[in-house]
Amino acid sequence: MNIHLKAPKVDFACHRPFKSFLPGFISDGDTVRNRKDNLIVHLNAVIERLNSSLIKTTKELTEYKQRKIERPAEWMGFGSSYYFLSAESKSWDEARMFCRAREADLVVINNRDENAFLFSFTKRSVWIGLSDEASEGTWKWVDGSPLTLKLWGNNQPDNGAGIYGEEDCAQLTFEDSGFWNDISCKTSLRWICEKKAK
Ligand SMILES: [Ca+2]
Ligand SMILES: [Ca+2]
Ligand SMILES: [Ca+2]
């Protein structure tokens, strides 16, 4: 004899959720719960925003304090850099060595404001970190950046104009109102080091 145990046929489509039978009661509860959930999500987002803003402010404050501490004595601050104006005079290479030994380099002039500041600050002609020693006529800053801002004086750079010999290093001139001139790298001049504030 064959016995067939047949599972009762259940039509799931007909089994609507229980709550649908009590729309008023359950839906209101759901609405309150949803509002509560939304509120928690919203509050968490606000707390997260406040936290990240607090972390950012603390970081900025720490950096500001460090910056104040790390400013070397006798270095002048402007923008996000410190500048050192030498009291003695050296060749361009020696001046650069001096700066590099102090975690700095000869100044890289990034804009007119920086140039104007340097001119008012130096009151004399100084070496800047610009040279065409590696390739004649191709001027490069000591940080490797090409020359975009050009504040050359009249008829400069002239590479010595056939009179003064090779001129491969740049000076910010006092006599020519802060405009630049190329001059022999062996000339003894004062210089400016630039150190980025950390
Ligand atoms: Ca600079
Ligand atoms: Ca040259
Ligand atoms: Ca020149």
Automatic annotation (TrEMBL):
Residues 78-194 form the C-type lectin domain. The keyword Cell cycle does not apply. The keyword rRNA-binding does not apply. InterPro entries: C-type_lectin-like, C-type_lectin-like/link_sf, C-type_lectin/snaclec_domain, C-type_lectin_CS, CD209-like_CTLD, CTDL_fold. Keywords: Disulfide bond, Lectin. Pfam families: Lectin_C. One of its GO terms (molecular function) is carbohydrate binding. PANTHER family: MANNOSE, PHOSPHOLIPASE, LECTIN RECEPTOR RELATED (PTHR22803). This is C-type lectin domain-containing protein. It comes from Oryzias melastigma.
